[in-house]
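R.M. (postdoc): so does anyone remember the format we settled on? I'll just put the structure tokens first.
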């Protein structure tokens, strides 16, 4: 079992085997603040700090019978399905941190727990739909100051290789990206979070519009034998001369978003922009007439 899933079970265990979904996310967030190497990353979401990975892990643990997800009138609960003492399965320092989290915050109501995380970590409250119900005007002002504000349109490129979904979404939020254009031919990934449906859902929660433009992708069989930068350069020259020419209408869809003042990010897999066709798309957009936006690689 992945160690991070043992942490989830241990967290549920020390809270008598049951937490609401919101409590679970907040306690786990506070726990990771104590870790040097964090077991989970978080983004600002509808109810504050949220980890997609932790949410996915709960679903997996439910599938294998470790816990259950119970829907009630009071909300969603995560509940252990056995009495095993999972706290003994994690490292001593993590065990100590979890117990300290319970001691310090375990008696807070759910609203007070959420309120505490908003006050102490205001960045993670910038997308909250309930902050106005919980905080005073001064506290809301502090949160607003954490929100990135850019007035100029801009084009970005971003790859998701080697980073978590949360780190990826945070990069978009911090640069005030409001449209993500997925230029993969097939928006499927074996890496959690980056298949079309999950990525679209994550973007919606962060107020980012997701658009898949498969016409600007490259078929996978053309990428099988790329061993050197020269191989990539040859493929991308062919791509520029054919696909980008034949699908100019798709390119102009992105240009129209930029013309409306949007801050647009082009995305694909590769970390290195020199080895990804999204750079070709970006360069083509920069070469269109009357370009009044800049390009930045994230």
């Amino acid at each position: 079992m992945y160690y991070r899933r043992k942490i989830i079970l241990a967290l549920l265990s020390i809270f008598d085997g049951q937490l609401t979904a919101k409590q679970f996310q907040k306690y786990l967030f506070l726990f990771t603040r104590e870790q040097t190497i964090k077991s989970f990353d978080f983004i600002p979401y509808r109810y504050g700090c949220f980890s997609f990975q932790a949410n996915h892990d709960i679903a997996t643990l439910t599938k294998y019978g470790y816990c259950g997800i119970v829907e009630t009138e009071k909300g969603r609960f995560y509940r252990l399905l056995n009495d095993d003492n999972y706290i003994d399965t994690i490292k001593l320092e993590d065990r100590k941190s979890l117990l300290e989290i319970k001691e310090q915050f375990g008696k807070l109501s759910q609203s007070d727990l959420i309120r505490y995380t908003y006050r102490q970590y205001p960045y993670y409250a910038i997308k909250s739909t309930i902050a106005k119900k919980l905080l005073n005007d001064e506290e809301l002002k502090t949160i607003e100051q954490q929100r990135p504000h850019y007035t100029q349109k801009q084009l970005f490129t971003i790859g998701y290789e080697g980073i978590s979904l949360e780190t990826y979404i945070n990069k978009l939020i911090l640069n005030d990206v409001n449209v993500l254009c997925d230029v993969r031919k097939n928006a499927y990934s074996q890496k959690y979070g980056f298949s079309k449906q999950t990525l679209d859902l994550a973007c919606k929660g962060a107020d980012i519009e997701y658009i898949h433009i498969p016409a600007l992708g490259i078929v996978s069989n053309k990428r099988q034998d790329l061993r050197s930068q020269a191989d990539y350069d040859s493929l991308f020259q062919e791509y520029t001369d054919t696909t980008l020419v034949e699908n100019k209408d798709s390119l102009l869809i992105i240009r129209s978003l930029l013309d409306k003042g949007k801050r647009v990010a082009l995305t694909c897999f590769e970390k290195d922009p020199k080895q990804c066709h999204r750079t070709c798309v970006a360069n083509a957009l920069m070469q269109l007439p009357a370009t009044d936006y800049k390009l930045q690689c994230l």
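R.M.: ...and that's the designed sequence above, right after the tokens. Also worth knowing: The longest strand covers residues 67-72. The chain has two domains: 3-145, 154-297.
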